Amino acid sequence: MQRSTIIVAGGIGTRMGGPIPKQFLLLKGKPLLCWTIEAFHAYDAALPIVLVLPEQQITMWRTLCIGHHFHVEHDVVAGGVERFHSVKNGLATVKHDGLVAVHDGVRPLVSVALIDRCFRAAQEHGAAIPVVPISSSVREVDGDDSRPLDRSRLRAVQTPQCFRADLLREAFGRPYDPAFTDEATLVQRGGTPVHLVDGEDRNLKVTTPMDLRVAELMLRGTGE
Amino acid sequence: MQRSTIIVAGGIGTRMGGPIPKQFLLLKGKPLLCWTIEAFHAYDAALPIVLVLPEQQITMWRTLCIGHHFHVEHDVVAGGVERFHSVKNGLATVKHDGLVAVHDGVRPLVSVALIDRCFRAAQEHGAAIPVVPISSSVREVDGDDSRPLDRSRLRAVQTPQCFRADLLREAFGRPYDPAFTDEATLVQRGGTPVHLVDGEDRNLKVTTPMDLRVAELMLRGTGE
Known about the structure:
2 copies of one chain form a homodimer. Chain A is an alpha/beta fold. In chain A, 33% of the residues lie in helices and 24% in strands. Chain A has 7 helices and 12 strands. In chain A, the strands form 3 sheets. In chain A, strands 1, 4, 5, 6, 7, 10, 11 and 12 form an 8-stranded mixed beta sheet that branches. In chain A, α1 crosses α4 and α5 crosses α6. The model of chain A has no long low-confidence stretch (mean pLDDT 92). Chains A and B meet through β8, β9, β10, α6 and α7 of A and β8, β9, β10, α6 and α7 of B.
């Protein structure tokens, strides 16, 4: 079954506090996005990779690729206003009816094993996403009130989120809803149950300077 | 209003993979628990501090205090089978009717400002706990099924959890329920709403070797 991956790096990176979009920050001397793209390339060197970037960052990205001698083949597509529109733009370039992974550009440490698990589960179930347990107690706020949730039933959602292409197209064919959080939610709304796959602690989302340091530690293996 | 804190360090530390209970692991050369106790001492040098430890670790703890020249005054109480019993044992030593904080021993980076916020809110509302937003999408699992939750309404719960002593005594006077997760849940069950206070990202719970490295980075300020 044909496969593609859409890597979404739409962030303008304000949370990092610097002028550099977070997907371009250096992890062990190499932009985060290079790590992310290489992870999918390591899974399958023939896998078509579509990178969705804010239009104003595309030139910077191409310059970085040259400067860092980054040669993994990938297509670059301009993103939209919100993640929804960015994924939709990426999806428009996928022409086959196989499987599509949608992955956060700022999850550079995703493993080949996890990518494989997600694709396999999507092939079997139509929709599959990686999740990990939540380590703290969680409350749900309701106005001035809040109530404890049963933590044992909660899971934090990661990417890659993998789907049969037709299901994903159908989901993104519906009008944009500002309540959009992730692709799985959209697909599930169309009636397809989402299969949960074991995620990985090291598949962290790098959104703060501290996350970047943690990613560095993970690469060094000092935290293992 | 009189105040006390109960620091619960009941973990046998198996998640760290080593023979050393995690509350004794060294953070910048000093056991985690020393940092935690010092944080409350810095908030108020006269604050009575009750440390609850598994009975078999008490001698090791006293030895560590001597070895590390740790002189902050505190009482040590033997813990019970579960956290519920440990907190209950600690609470039995608190004789006043003021405010009681219950804090995880493995949250060494709690700030004086946060301790102060929690005590003040407990004085006003009876029960107060620190919470932080959750940065990932979250699902609730129900058998083979799962559904996305509205992340904007979810909060991760931290400590110190602060209460009027009478409310906490009443809560711990009821029979043990294996569904117990934290003190706030118990108190709320008695009918007192729990006030939510802004927690802190750096108030992390150190339960893995990676957490310990992150705590070190936070102390160095390199992630700021």
